[in-house]
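Hi V.,

Quick status before I head out on leave. The structure for the redesign project is tokenized and pasted below; the design run finished overnight.
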């Protein structure tokens, strides 16, 4: 199954994403932007991909540029929401901002539609997965996106 192009871009290095998801405008909470709190440092240590000696350097690049890369890894912050945050875009040119209506839901629709046969056996999915699948089966892509966004705003 083809992944989202964001995950397909890098073929040789390991990609790690730290993602903040919001209902409204894309944003990053203080834990991902406040160096003094060292939250990114703790997350990187718990992931275990970097030696303790390197964690601070990786974290500093993430705090400053929302991205770190070396010969083995690319680590990126990403923000998901309903709308792009232009101020965030100015501050972090490397930050990926994904919106539900342009990125996330079209990808989900495509994945479910393109691999409908593989996804047909889905009784083990949670309620959200069931709703997504049902909407994909009964709606075109535009209706699917509008329905999911409308349902999520009502809840």
């Amino acid at each position: 199954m083809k992944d989202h192009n964001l995950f397909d871009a890098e073929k040789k290095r390991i990609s790690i994403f730290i993602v903040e998801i919001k209902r409204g405008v894309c944003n990053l909470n203080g834990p991902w932007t406040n160096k003094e709190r060292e939250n990114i440092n703790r997350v990187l240590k718990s992931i275990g991909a970097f030696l303790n000696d390197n964690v601070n350097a990786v974290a500093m690049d993430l705090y400053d540029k929302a991205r770190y890369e070396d010969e083995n890894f690319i680590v990126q912050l990403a923000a998901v929401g309903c709308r792009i945050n232009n101020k965030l875009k100015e501050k972090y040119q490397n930050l990926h901002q994904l919106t539900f209506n342009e990125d996330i839901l079209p990808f989900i629709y495509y994945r479910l539609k393109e691999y409908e046969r593989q996804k047909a056996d889905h009784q083990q999915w949670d309620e959200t997965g069931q709703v997504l699948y049902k909407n994909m089966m009964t709606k075109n892509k535009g209706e699917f996106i509008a329905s999911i966004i409308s349902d999520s705003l009502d809840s």
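Above is the designed sequence. The longest helix spans residues 100-114.

G. will cover questions while I'm gone.

Best,
W.
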